[in-house]
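STRUCTURE REQUEST FORM
Protein name: Glycerol-3-phosphate dehydrogenase [NAD(+)]
Source organism: Lyophyllum shimeji
Requested output: structure tokens
Priority: standard
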Amino acid sequence: MWARDESIVTHFNKYHRNPMYLRDHQFPPNITAVGPDLPSKELIDTMDVLLFAIPTQFLRENLTSLHPRLDRHKMPLMIFVNKGIEVGTHALTLEIIADTCGPEVARAATFISGPSFAKEIVERQPTSVSVASFNESEANKATILFHQPHFRCYTGVDPIGIELSGALKNVYAIAAGMSDGLGFENNTRAMIITRGLAEMTCIGTAYGASPLTFLGLAGVGDLFLTCSSSNSRNYTVGHRLGRGESLDTIMKTLGSVAEGVSTTKGVKTIIDELGVNAPIANSIYDVLYNGKETRTAVRELMELPPSKELELPPTAGGPARKLLRKLGLDIS
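Status: completed
Returned output:
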């Protein structure tokens, strides 16, 4: 395992524990840590699998550094578990991989997403996730690698939908946390989860993902989890906002990365470009970046005129078609 903090590497190799996260969990002695430098080409050449849990906003710079160390004639299975949209480019991880490592690497990249808090996984509590890749054989390899009696994997062929699901649900987790922080209860949370899923499906379909993906583990499954638990970092950000704390204070004291805060910027750009109606996501953006009061945002949402409950966008697939062309995939 690679860590960018040398003190964590030293502590892990001495005690087989992470001093920052899951501190009570004892890792097996055959797992070692390396860092703070990225693994060498010689070490990477010995690897069959590389799993990336690097936050999306830092993925591009790390892949750029890593790419020269990859042997294109003996590529490891590349698995990505980050969830987010890059600020500035509003790129999905697939596009970041293509830009830094080439289209052929992106085509084979595999994504794992779903309702899966790390604390419960290491306790071997029953968990299920979605595994998707444009290359079905790579998805099957990842499934075989991870599938255990306590960790069930379901394969799919819509990595764009998997990525969007994992990124979008973090925005709505902030909304659910805000609701609870304001003192609202079960009716409101159920409304946010349901309407959030409708917005996610509409955004994803307009982007070019399959609407069915949002009904799976990476969609509604992960949305329900992150909107319902204080173990979610994004929910925690929202909850503290609802209780009146400033975003600056929250981010300085959170102690870990809440991908939904930065992802909201990318989501806002995508919503505007696609012309999608997503009032909850827009309201979260206004609270985070335009200084809108949380109670004002809630009031304005509830005062919106009546509308159709379920409606997919009239046009779909523009961004996905552009991305598929970049990956060199047939879109005829």
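Reviewer notes: The longest strand covers residues 127-132. The chain has two domains: 6-158, 160-315.
Form closed.
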